[in-house]
Automatic annotation (TrEMBL):
Residues 1-29 form the signal peptide. GO terms for cellular component: membrane. Residues 197-274 form the Wall-associated receptor kinase C-terminal domain. It is a single-pass membrane protein. It is found in: Membrane. PANTHER family: OS01G0690200 PROTEIN, WALL-ASSOCIATED RECEPTOR KINASE CARBOXY-TERMINAL PROTEIN. It is an enzyme of class 2 (transferase). This is non-specific serine/threonine protein kinase. The lineage of its organism: Eukaryota, Viridiplantae, Streptophyta, Embryophyta, Tracheophyta. It comes from Rubroshorea leprosula.
Length: 289
């Protein structure tokens, strides 16, 4: 008996056949994370949303921490810091997110007072964005002191376009609040002193953010009412986001999809075969076609 002796070419044929039979299966079994993140989604009335955002339907690893959206039929919200925001626009070209505080949509007196804050690693001011200060729980202005000398006119800071009072039904005090659209230190001295006196009698301060052009039109409107301020806040403000943007650009350029790995706690680039740190290996893009 001779040992079974097959010619080398027969082996090559077997190998080629094996590869051909399994090739379609191999190509379709792309990495699960790549397949799951190969999508955009709609949230409320915004469509075509992708990385770094994710929603409760999509896997968390397709987005970046801090960019979870809360979607319902007609609303789309995001939590930044301790506050909840209505998402008005997502511009993925300029990477600007336009948001408005949900607790200031109807009036200036939310049940709890929360500053607009964000993680500076993730979000930055845009050049259109400006701070506005609201003061709450203020005592009424003190009566003017009895004049010893002939009275000099007391400046009334509420005549200034950048400062005014508002009232909150239910908060108890009238006027219970003031808002100031400028930095106190930048004001002319008489106004600075007068406003400082009024604000010194306030218990709380809230820092909000609005679109600069909305604040400018608020200042020039000659119609300083609570509603005009509420309107200005409702228009929202832009935040430039950074979710490892440059890594994501490199990943996308190599044919990968951006994501985040909660285990290693860093950016991850999903390629058809497996996740990589930054980019898919050369040739990945061709084989994924
Ligand atoms: C990714 O999505 C595109 C468009 O929906 C689809 O044509 C393609 O087959 C998907 N790729 C994979 C690997 O799932
Ligand atoms: C999502 O939004 C709904 C409706 O505004 C709200 O009731 C719910 O608490 C939110 N969920 C989270 C996790 O923020
Ligand atoms: C923006 O999103 C669209 C739709 O998902 C996508 O086709 C486009 O490549 C994205 N642009 C950038 C700069 O990420
Ligand atoms: C107020 O001052 C801060 C810091 O000094 C500055 O960043 C901001 O632009 C100023 N705001 C206005 C409205 O000038
Ligand atoms: C908001 O921030 C300002 C300045 O950082 C602080 O003085 C104020 O107490 C904060 N207000 C609230 C309600 O946390
Ligand atoms: C003042 O603003 C309120 C709210 O935006 C608006 O309803 C009202 O018509 C305005 N009044 C004038 C005189 O412009
Ligand atoms: C702010 O207002 C300007 C002028 O109206 C507008 O061009 C810009 O898009 C607004 N920015 C945001 C983030 O809404
Ligand atoms: C990715 O972003 C995080 C948070 O901003 C930052 O700490 C980290 O250094 C970034 N990684 C790279 C490689 O840029």
């Amino acid at each position: 008996m001779h040992p079974l002796h097959l010619p080398g070419s027969f082996f090559i044929i077997i190998i080629i056949t094996f590869v051909l039979i399994h090739a379609p299966k191999y190509a379709s079994s792309a990495d699960e994370r790549y397949v799951k993140c190969n999508r955009t989604f709609a949230c409320g009335n915004i469509e075509n949303i992708g990385y770094p955002f994710w929603d409760s339907d999509g896997p968390e690893y397709c987005g970046y921490p801090g960019f979870q959206l809360n979607c319902s039929d007609s609303t789309q919200e995001i939590r930044i810091g301790s506050a909840t925001y209505n998402v008005l626009e997502i511009d993925n070209e300029s990477r600007v997110l336009t948001v408005a505080r949900t607790d200031y949509l109807d009036d200036l007196c939310p049940p709890s007072l929360i500053n607009t804050t964000w993680n500076p690693d993730l979000f930055e001011f845009t050049r259109h964005t400006q701070v506005i200060n609201l003061y709450y729980h203020c005592l009424p202005p003190p009566p003017p002191p009895a004049p010893l000398t002939p009275p000099t006119p007391i400046p009334n800071p509420e005549n200034d376009e950048y400062f005014n009072h508002f009232t909150c039904n239910g908060y108890g005090n009238t006027p219970c609040g003031y808002y100031l659209t400028r930095n106190l230190s930048e004001l002319p001295l008489p106004a600075h002193i007068a406003i400082n006196g009024l604000l010194g009698r306030c218990g709380d301060r809230v820092v909000l953010v609005a679109n600069q052009s909305e604040i400018q039109s608020l200042e020039t409107s000659q119609n300083l009412s609570e509603e005009t301020l509420v309107d200005a806040l409702e228009k929202g403000f832009g935040l430039q986001w950074n979710a490892n943007n440059s890594l994501c650009d490199q990943c996308g350029g190599s044919g990968g999809l951006c994501g985040y790995d909660k285990v290693s706690n860093k950016f991850s680039c999903y390629c058809t075969d497996r996740p990589y740190d930054t980019v898919c290996p050369t040739g990945q893009f061709i084989t994924s076609l």
